[in-house]
Design goal:
Oligomer: heterodimer
Mean pLDDT of chain A: 96
Strand content of chain B: 5-15%
Helix content of chain B: 40-55%
Helix content of chain A: 40-55%
Shape of chain B: elongated
Number of strands of chain B: 12
Order of helices and strands of chain A: EHHEHHEHHEHEHHEHHEHEH
Low-confidence stretches of chain B: none
Largest sheet of chain B: 6 strands, parallel
Number of helices of chain B: 22
Number of domains of chain B: 3
CATH class of the largest domain in chain B: Alpha Beta
CATH superfamily of the largest domain in chain B: NagB/RpiA/CoA transferase-like
Structural class of chain A: alpha/beta
CATH architecture of the largest domain in chain B: 3-Layer(aba) Sandwich
Largest sheet of chain A: 4 strands, parallel
Strand order of the largest sheet of chain A: 2-1-3-4
Strand order of the largest sheet of chain B: 1-10-7-4-2-3
CATH topology of the largest domain in chain B: Rossmann fold
Radius of gyration of chain B: 26 Å
Structural class of chain B: alpha/beta
Distance between the termini of chain A: 30 Å
Shape of chain A: globular
Radius of gyration of chain A: 18 Å
Largest interface: A-B, 65 and 65 residues
Chain lengths: ~240, ~475
């Protein structure tokens, strides 16, 4: 692969609306690595809630416009979410397979779209990122990043390389937190029960900070911890790595 | 007002049951750990799983041919094959066999298919006593309960529950229920009498081998072997998808089934029945009837859910499922619970019969990861959700909300405006950036966790500003 000098960033709708600072942390991090960052105008939501809710037509419409916006430029696309990356990488080509105008572009986009930690470790080949932190952190492995993209080793490795941080194990770190998008409001009883088990494991881990690579699970877990009156914080990996040494 | 679907109401009750939670955590944890260790012992488990998947795919692509071959072989061995299109047809075949023989007692080994077609009820209606001989199913029958797992039907029971049941319903003495071996021995003594007196043994079938006409049952208690060999007549109930082409293919499935189910290399009994008693043999049933049951399977086979028929019924997807683990099998209100059942039940009986099941998943994908034949259950759950939307099932607020969101998300200016409006509207409700109570339908969220308030200025605004500054 030729040396990458420019990237496109799709911060995702949740970062856009709920955690703009995490988006800026991603920009800072990528720029510190010497990359030119562009955030194409007009990006909103990748359409995953539609797809998973059974609204295939609406999902395909959002997939098409996202493909349009991210194929003007052929720079790699970085997404600070395993879930949205999986949507673009695995679901878009499937969703648009029969659309003559989009099938090939969707496949092409899928081939150069990466979750943030995957990009840093697997594409750029970084072993550590210069960053500084404090305290005990544990990593919660979000489902779609973990099982769809194989993301777990990468964020754990990057966390281990952060000065001043101690990473502690989290039991059942790879078990779903119960978010599941609309599931959390459609099936609140089940979702709440799954969340409680996740929170118990978090509180037993001794970590003062939970690190996620998906804001969706992060907000779900953080909302649960807050409801419990827990002092454990939840941050995105970019928030940790973006902190300059 | 409770807006939650029936599944979720049952789930909330099950999740609040601490004893059930402990039982589920213990058993599913043990089975999961056993599975992981047993697969790790194989030289190349992933390659074996890929191979098994190919065998299943091939078999189902040529199912008609293999079924015909199987039927010819069974009949050549002296058995009788019955083809049942519906559950009612299958039940009628068995009842007819039993009444023709004037049978009074039927012993059964474990068969999920018999649960699917509700065989026991029909036999009892015909005045025939039915005794379940799998220990778990025996307890289920005694307690008039239902199985809550496809291989460990009483995962929801504790040994203390069983002791009370045996004392109350069977008059067991203190020493009969002192511990699990004592209770097992007690049940065994009762069941032995039933085996010897039974007119018919009814079993399920794990695999039917097309090339030999053999039927294979995989059990751990020996009751399966007694059921299929002691009574003078054996009825084997077999779903049409349970075919494997050859004995070599059988070996592949057997290497994966017990490992995936319980972590055993093989179950304690792997029973291969090839025809009824032959001339000169001193034991075995004189008659063998194989009932091949369709009951919706050939319709499934033709559609986008065909892959669920690859299933070899190991139960690994139940054990790994974070939903199943928290709510147990009864919450599904389906003969087949867990991820498998959430596809199979609406697949066989239609979405209207089980509208909640495809929704009862976060699509976390753990089931697909552990499936010995790599069935993509999440893909099919999404397909069922899509059908559900097309059929107009499900709450209107979801349809409205999701479509409105999609409409806005296609129009960046309107989307930004809406985001700002939500930010303004939610500001008075938020404390330190979080909201503790929201009106329906978001009240489902705030029942269990706080909801984040949108940032005052979204990333897009901050980014535009930064770009202008350069």
């Amino acid at each position: 692969m030729s040396r990458i000098t420019r990237v496109q960033l799709f911060v995702t709708c949740l970062v856009d609306a709920f955690a703009p600072r995490t988006g800026l942390a991603v920009v800072d991090l990528l720029e510190r690595l010497g990359l030119e960052v562009e955030c194409p105008d007009g990006l909103t939501c990748c359409g995953q809630p539609q797809l998973n809710g059974g609204f295939a037509m609406e999902a395909a419409a959002l997939a098409r416009r996202t493909v349009d916006l991210l194929t003007v430029d052929d720079a790699p696309v970085i997404v600070p979410s395993g879930s949205c990356t999986d949507m673009i990488v695995h679901q878009y080509p499937r969703l648009l397979a029969d659309d003559a105008r989009y099938a090939e572009r969707a496949r092409q986009l899928a081939s150069r779209c990466y979750e943030l930690s995957q990009f840093l470790v697997d594409v750029l080949g970084l072993e550590v990122v210069d960053a500084r932190g404090t305290g005990h952190v544990a990593y919660h492995a979000s489902c779609h990043g973990l099982r769809g993209l194989g993301v777990r080793r990468q964020p754990e490795q990057l966390l281990d390389g952060v000065d001043g941080l101690t990473r502690v194990p989290l039991s059942e770190a790879d078990v779903c937190c119960g978010f599941g998008g609309l599931f959390a409001v459609k099936m609140p009883g089940v979702s709440g029960a799954m969340l409680q088990r996740k929170l118990d494991a978090i509180e037993a881990s001794g970590a003062d900070t939970i690190v996620v690579t998906d804001l969706s699970c992060g907000l779900h877990i953080a909302g649960g911890l807050r409801r419990r009156g827990s002092r454990v914080r939840v941050v995105h990996l970019a928030d940790v790595l973006g902190a300059e040494p | 007002m409770s807006q939650a679907p029936a599944f979720d109401r049952r789930a909330a009750a099950a999740a609040a049951d601490a004893k059930l939670g402990e039982a589920l955590r213990f058993t599913t944890g043990r089975l999961q750990a056993g599975r992981a260790a047993a697969l790790a012992e194989l030289p190349d488990a992933d390659a074996l799983r890929d191979h098994a998947r190919r065998v299943r795919a091939h078999t189902l692509r040529h199912l008609g041919r293999y079924l015909d071959q199987f039927a010819v072989q069974v009949e050549a061995l002296g058995g009788t094959v019955h083809w049942a299109t519906t559950a009612a047809d299958a039940v009628a075949v068995v009842v007819e066999i039993a009444t023709r023989r004037a049978a009074r007692l039927v012993v059964k080994s474990k068969s999920m298919l018999s649960e699917e077609i509700e065989l026991n009820h029909a036999l009892e209606q015909a005045g025939i006593r039915v005794v379940e001989t799998d220990l778990g199913e025996f307890i289920v029958q005694l307690a008039r309960d239902r199985p809550s797992h496809i291989i460990t039907p009483i995962v929801h029971w504790t040994r203390e529950d069983v002791a009370v049941l045996f004392r109350q319903r069977l008059g067991a003495a203190e020493q009969d229920v002192a511990d699990i071996p004592a209770m097992t021995a007690f049940a065994r003594r009762l069941l032995r009498r039933e085996f010897l007196a039974a007119d018919i043994g009814v079993s399920g079938v794990n695999f039917g081998v097309a090339s030999t006409g053999s039927i294979v049952t995989v059990t751990n208690e020996g009751n399966g072997r007694l059921t299929t060999t002691t009574p003078p007549l054996h009825v084997a109930l077999m779903g049409i998808e349970r075919i494997v082409p050859t004995v070599d293919d059988l070996e592949v499935m057997l290497r994966l089934l017990a490992r995936s189910a319980t972590g055993q290399k093989l179950s304690v009994y792997t029973n291969i029945v090839t025809g009824p008693r032959r001339d000169g043999e001193v034991d075995g049933p004189r008659e063998l009837h194989v009932v091949l049951v369709d009951n919706g399977r050939s319709t499934l086979l033709a559609g986008e859910l065909a892959e669920i028929l690859y299933c070899i019924r190991c139960g690994a997807c139940l054990n790994i499922c974070p939903v199943y683990q928290r709510v147990g099998g009864h919450t599904y209100d389906s003969v087949y619970p867990g991820p498998l059942g959430s596809v199979l039940t609406p697949g066989l009986h239609g979405l209207a019969a089980a509208p909640d099941l495809p929704q009862a998943s976060t699509l976390c994908g753990a089931c697909r990861d552990v499936c010995p034949v790599r069935i993509d259950i999440p893909r099919m759950l999404v397909a069922l959700r899509t059908s559900s939307v097309q059929q107009g099932l499900g709450p209107g607020w979801i349809r409205l909300g999701v479509k409105a969101h999609a409409w806005l998300a296609s129009r960046p200016r309107a989307y930004r405006a809406a985001l700002r409006a939500v930010g303004v509207a939610s500001a008075p409700l938020a404390r330190q950036g979080w909201m503790a109570r929201l009106p329906w339908p978001l009240s489902g969220w705030t029942a269990h966790r706080d909801f984040p308030a949108p940032a005052r200025r979204p990333f897009s605004a901050l980014w535009a500003e930064r770009r202008r500054a350069r």
